[in-house]
User: Fold these one by one.
Assistant:
Number 1:
Amino acid sequence: MELPKSSLLNVARGAGVLACLSGGYGFLFMLGAFGPVSCWTTQTATESASGKSTTVVTRGCEAGIDYLFGSTGGNAPVLFGWAMVLIGLVAFGGAAAWLGYRHIIWATVAIGTSISILGMLSIGWFFVLPTLCLLIAAVALTVQARRESTGRRPTAI
């Protein structure tokens, strides 16, 4: 039985699939498929004519999908928007990895890295793993392109 030879294109394709899977998980998480994403609490103090004050505490939780169902407050529009950016980025980068377009993958890596750094304390963590997977795909395709342009092949061990 002969095993298929591994190529760098297959490595890039595998990394692209992993990027799509991890980005899809982050997309579903931000939309609220696994529970509420953002919870908030407000306290309102009211004073009656007799001088007694009462405090009313209001709590709520929401996710990105609440934006589609008409929720206008909180972080629902922000979560929905970033979920769309994430799924678009990984779909575009994953397709480029599958087809072997290394320059497009490098562009998605640059965008994903920028978002990860700028949003480090909030949504950036959802972009880290897909960006790392796309980075692996970009490096694999770049190495493959260099080998093909110079004619060098790795030495057999």
Number 2:
Amino acid sequence: MTRPIGVPLVILALASLLAIGLSVAIGSVALTLTDLGAVLFGDAPALHRTLVLELRLPRTLAAFATGGLLAVAGALMQVLLRNPLADPYVLGLSGGAAVGALLAMLAGLGGLLVSGSAFAGALLSTLMVFGLAHGTGSWTPSRLLLTGVVVAAGWGAVITLMLSISPARELPGMLYWLMGDVSYARTPWPGLVLLTLICLVVIPLGRSLNVLARGPLQAAALGISVRPMEWLIYLLASLLTATAVTMAGSIGFVGLVVPHMLRLVLGNDQRLILPACAFAGGTLLVLADTLARVVIAPEQLPVGVITALLGVPTFLYLLYRSR
């Protein structure tokens, strides 16, 4: 890897490690670097080991995986739709996942069954959008975008109906899930493994993605198989988004703001942008989750609230800068 590409990634990787360490150390029981070192080397008290290894570290890694998944999905969606303001939720994936999860909650299910239902809902939404946008001909980015907006609006209506008829005792958990919450994500490893695998898959395709971002005609003229590449990008972005929603619920603005900010700083080389999104998105969500845990301690805020409060002014500023 050349120096211009490697240096930003090293900086972002160090920032990620710093954010993870900060998240693990901060909480109702503050831990020092000495305490964390003792936990890593097995010399810590049982309380500290339980606090770090069973509570804080899984949650922190889940937040990092979720943020990285959303940011990489956002970068892929922006290449697919050739729109720097595209978002991984724009095609209704989060709406389908939310409906699946809420149905599982209403049925009295929990744990992995809720996650599985959310994943099934996201995949169903993917098939619906792709099928409706294709119709009897071929889909275009604008047609795919419009279809996704309509499907997302339909899922929103279904969610509102479900909340209206749900028993009062079920509403707090359902609303918390809809706002985005990583406090129940205790198995971060599938998300981390998927994030790593996707980055390893798409980085070799970075040159082709750079060409595709300039338009299908130029890509076809330069020997790129446009349609299979677009299918691959869409399926990968859908898988990333569905996994993120399954882990932590609906968390907005990460997939929109992170790729856009990185492009302003690092340029448009997808070989750099995609791994940078994995680090930067994960770091952003780890810091947001840390803030959500401590800002009104001992109560906790949904991390989706923090990302929205940070994302809205940031997005408006970026929009103003790029007008």
Number 3:
Amino acid sequence: MQVEEAEDVQCIDVREEWEASIASIPGFQLFPLSRMEEWETKLTTILDPQKPTFCLCHHGIRSQRMAQLLVSKGFQEVYNIVGGIDAYCRTVDPSVPAY
């Protein structure tokens, strides 16, 4: 899949706020899993189930849980970023701090 514009996709970060304050990637919206009760019922109004959706966490475990939740809510094209922000900072952008 080729993505030409940021508006064509939506990016979700399920880490905690303290984690995002250490390292983050521009364009990712924060949906901490620990606060799921606050946003779970609103997901289909906050996000577009028709857009490709990328899920991120520290290593890929929590984001996989979010990806499964999105699929269960009717999202069609959901991707878990395997290795999470830890792999991203080590292999893609070393300016993003590792923690």
